[in-house]
Hints:
Elements: H1 8-30, H2 46-67, H3 72-89
Helix pairs in contact: 2-3
Amino acid sequence: MRWMEWTAQTAVFFGVIIGAIVALLVWELRSPTVERRGLLPMPTTRGDRFFIGLLASAFVHMAWLGLTATTPWLASALSLALMAAIGRWG
């Protein structure tokens, strides 16, 4: 695994994603999802909104790393807020 620079931020980011997938699995087993329309231009399920939020988070992090030299923790906080907004109103 020498091809990738594993930093604390990277490990936390991927750990949170894995934990969220497990939480979504448990939530889906307890309460099956229903498609709904929100701010996104299509009906989505919880899993759809989570995937869209992950894509948005990846783009935020890539842009942050490409455009700034500051800590990625700020990009993580912005991504968390974006994912919460997509999950709630998406």
